[in-house]
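Hi there,

I know you've been waiting on this one. I reran it after we fixed the sequence typo, so this is the corrected version. Both the input and the resulting structure follow.
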Amino acid sequence: MLKIFAVAATATLTMFAGSVSAADLACLVTKNNTNPFFVKMREGAEAAAKAAGLDFLAFAGQLDTDATPQITAIENCVASGAKGILITAANDSVGPALKAARDAGILVIALDTPLGDSEAQDITFATDNFEAGLLIGKWAAATLDAEAANARIAMLDINFDNISVDVARDTGFLVGFGIDVPDLTIMGSETDARVVGHEQSDGNPQGGQRAMENLLAKEPGINVVYTINEPAAEGAFQALRAADTSALIVSVDGGCPGVQNVADGVIGATSQQYPLRMASLGIEAIATFAADGTIPKVTEGLSFFNTGVNLVTDQPVDGVPSISTAEGLELCWG
């Protein structure tokens, strides 16, 4: 019989330790339980656990950057005899707890973003974020066609901390657009004059608007806007509208509101990732590991298991595969 428990508050984590079948338990630990991205992960993991006959524990912190409840959750999963742990880590301070879990024979799969310490996880299941950036870069260049040579590009990143997802999307876009990027491990190594600058958006509408305003003050003629995610794109659009100008906006994530923004013309194209599938495949890997000890392998040519990405636009271009917003709305974060 499948047993499913969801725990959010640190104070109640220990209530469920030992209360499930230790032989067939899988755990999911996310940063919070309110972000739709993590909600979809939980839906996918829960359904996959039921299909596989695994008991399932879901834990979530309150703040994205707070690792304390995640560490407690990991310890509870170990104490409960879990076969595997899926985690979207708040930060690398969860590493020692995950290494202890691996030492206890538990399969550890990082979802979405790898840990800094390679010994803290067996494998990462994630979107190919470089490919996601590459797709929107190619689409933007093809859409502008001859005008791409005269583009004035605004880059709205998360921040300046060189977070792996941020770097991969940013540099992927530039490469896709046809801009030389000397160092793919950091943002801003390009010297192409078409790039007006990089600004911190914090991945939210307010930050996106502020970042766009700063770059418009530097170059009012911006006609291409790269954004780390769709909330930042929404803020950039508001800044452009307030300045009585427009630009081709591209983004990454593919959440339902973001795809709707593509349908409404706010965003030209976005790359869609699939957190529900990410977590589902992670649970399937835990079930296989529990059955015969098989550890999942990375996708050929990559350092992680690629869970897929699609370009979503209603303005397709030759040479860049894409799906429509109607299809994107059916698939959003599935």
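Quick highlight: DSSP finds ten helices and 13 strands in the chain.

Best,
R. S.
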